[in-house]
């Protein structure tokens, strides 16, 4: 956030002889950064960058207050003067007392609400000094009352609004949340359809204010205004930000409200506004002060250990100097034994939370340039590999395996969402979709990969693609669950090729992975031609042939084999401890064995049975062929296993191989009802 402030305005409150350029330099070194200085006639204008956590500096007085602390610590002559009128007594000074009925439906929407009615208002142009300062700050002057609201916002960092009292029907203001679809015409003559939950004010008949963003045209100050309501308040920052995002509409006031304002200085801002209204518009106070402030925030006492301060800064800072710096910044600070006890001022409550924040405040005013520059001593800490690094390594490995990475949109259409058949309560729908094709956050990456294959099937006949991205599952009122997923799709489909990729992935990421049958059909995969991917007892994904319903939607004629695994879950599981095994000194014996099984017998079940029966001589079992034919029998299949016999101290003897093979054949026949095929 950047603001423009004339230096002459700052000097109203910062009494110092320091030149404008020197002032800019000291501010940039220890406070808000002055990005540019522009000379306009006899004045200078600062272009100030205000960070999101330092909205207390987003005003003329806030900047003057910050500069005074820095200059005073440097030994420069400087003192701070408060704006005129902030101590004006807000009591009626006319016999015609007016009333205003204020109702706040939810105090959390508006932590503090102040208002006062002024009468005898004479609408005219503002004095030249106010008009010039507003224009130099980038705001167009309108009239003396409206200009006061903008002037206060820039001067004290407190947005405010003015209503024409006679146009508030029933002299009533009700602050509440908007209802979905309500409409209001704002000051810029735009009709805005409101989302649910925006903060609005209505009188006895209609909406008159889109709170924190822009007032309503039906209650604005005009040339005929005689009575006005000056209105200074604070709103819930999250609600204001959500409304500006939903409406794609942000104002200067909203930019301040959505970051939070100082609740304690709200009456001062109102007093200053009344003072200017009396001075520039001949106004008189015509009502009692309305000040609704029920939940006053507590000011926490923060303890800073002197030793911790010195350890962080790398040099000795005298406790009295630290207390002086904090006091200059508005903190209540005192020394208690070997610690500093400090309470932040009201304008820093949202920014200063703990002792590290105090150290930062002391360091910047002391001057970072004054701290010693020393290279840290000791060993360089070696941090464990983070997930981002592991993902980069995984992507590189998949590329070397012959796969092509793609990047697709996370937003899909309603029809594409229907392919995944998510539960209704798990769907994440965009509130303001650009088109119907970009309406939902995808629950699976496989839909997007299949779409890419459909778009490229005529350009390239052999497609092997992958993507690593997040999927989105709704969780009620909480943010959607966003797990990192890896999806691979191969066209034309080859289950064993994809299974090979899965085995390589398991080795790359160092996790155990097994394939197991799953009882419930996955909506994207074919029945009986898919399996669950498990790590231990936890399912982390699926692999198999995509359902024809999915491929037909994208006009893909051949089968597509795919897998999708949850990397967030996998990386959260224990890694396999890598151990060293020397290369065998003696050759292995490899032979194939074929057997006929029922079609429903899972290959993994066959492999596990053969491996267990062949221990310890059999070191590896893999399927090299699966054959189905009517000659084998109804619902039968022939499976050929390749067995590797290995010993560490000698080549396996033929008798040992025969014994192990017979044991495996016996187990397959008895436990899986197999029929061993003879050569």
UniProtKB/TrEMBL annotation:
<comment type="similarity">
    <text>Belongs to the phenylalanyl-tRNA synthetase beta subunit family. Type 1 subfamily.</text>
</comment>
<feature type="binding site">
    <location>
        <position position="360"/>
    </location>
    <ligand>
        <name>Mg(2+)</name>
    </ligand>
</feature>
<feature type="binding site">
    <location>
        <position position="357"/>
    </location>
    <ligand>
        <name>Mg(2+)</name>
    </ligand>
</feature>
<protein>
    <recommendedName>
        <fullName>Phenylalanine--tRNA ligase beta subunit</fullName>
        <ecNumber>6.1.1.20</ecNumber>
    </recommendedName>
</protein>
<dbReference type="GO" id="GO:0006432">
    <property type="term" value="P:phenylalanyl-tRNA aminoacylation"/>
</dbReference>
<dbReference type="Pfam" id="PF03484">
    <property type="entry name" value="B5"/>
</dbReference>
<feature type="domain" description="B5">
    <location>
        <begin position="297"/>
        <end position="373"/>
    </location>
</feature>
<dbReference type="InterPro" id="IPR009061">
    <property type="entry name" value="DNA-bd_dom_put_sf"/>
</dbReference>
<keyword id="KW-0479">Metal-binding</keyword>
<dbReference type="InterPro" id="IPR005147">
    <property type="entry name" value="tRNA_synthase_B5-dom"/>
</dbReference>
<dbReference type="Pfam" id="PF17759">
    <property type="entry name" value="tRNA_synthFbeta"/>
</dbReference>
<dbReference type="GO" id="GO:0004826">
    <property type="term" value="F:phenylalanine-tRNA ligase activity"/>
</dbReference>
<feature type="binding site">
    <location>
        <position position="361"/>
    </location>
    <ligand>
        <name>Mg(2+)</name>
    </ligand>
</feature>
<dbReference type="InterPro" id="IPR036690">
    <property type="entry name" value="Fdx_antiC-bd_sf"/>
</dbReference>
<dbReference type="GO" id="GO:0000287">
    <property type="term" value="F:magnesium ion binding"/>
</dbReference>
<dbReference type="InterPro" id="IPR041616">
    <property type="entry name" value="PheRS_beta_core"/>
</dbReference>
<keyword id="KW-0030">Aminoacyl-tRNA synthetase</keyword>
<feature type="domain" description="FDX-ACB">
    <location>
        <begin position="584"/>
        <end position="677"/>
    </location>
</feature>
<dbReference type="InterPro" id="IPR005121">
    <property type="entry name" value="Fdx_antiC-bd"/>
</dbReference>
<keyword id="KW-0648">Protein biosynthesis</keyword>
<dbReference type="InterPro" id="IPR020825">
    <property type="entry name" value="Phe-tRNA_synthase-like_B3/B4"/>
</dbReference>
<dbReference type="InterPro" id="IPR004532">
    <property type="entry name" value="Phe-tRNA-ligase_IIc_bsu_bact"/>
</dbReference>
<dbReference type="Pfam" id="PF03147">
    <property type="entry name" value="FDX-ACB"/>
</dbReference>
<keyword id="KW-0963">Cytoplasm</keyword>
<keyword id="KW-0460">Magnesium</keyword>
<dbReference type="Pfam" id="PF03483">
    <property type="entry name" value="B3_4"/>
</dbReference>
<dbReference type="InterPro" id="IPR045864">
    <property type="entry name" value="aa-tRNA-synth_II/BPL/LPL"/>
</dbReference>
<dbReference type="GO" id="GO:0005524">
    <property type="term" value="F:ATP binding"/>
</dbReference>
<dbReference type="GO" id="GO:0003723">
    <property type="term" value="F:RNA binding"/>
</dbReference>
<keyword id="KW-0547">Nucleotide-binding</keyword>
<keyword id="KW-0067">ATP-binding</keyword>
<comment type="subunit">
    <text>Tetramer of two alpha and two beta subunits.</text>
</comment>
<dbReference type="InterPro" id="IPR045060">
    <property type="entry name" value="Phe-tRNA-ligase_IIc_bsu"/>
</dbReference>
<dbReference type="GO" id="GO:0009328">
    <property type="term" value="C:phenylalanine-tRNA ligase complex"/>
</dbReference>
<keyword id="KW-0436">Ligase</keyword>
<dbReference type="InterPro" id="IPR005146">
    <property type="entry name" value="B3/B4_tRNA-bd"/>
</dbReference>
<feature type="binding site">
    <location>
        <position position="351"/>
    </location>
    <ligand>
        <name>Mg(2+)</name>
    </ligand>
</feature>
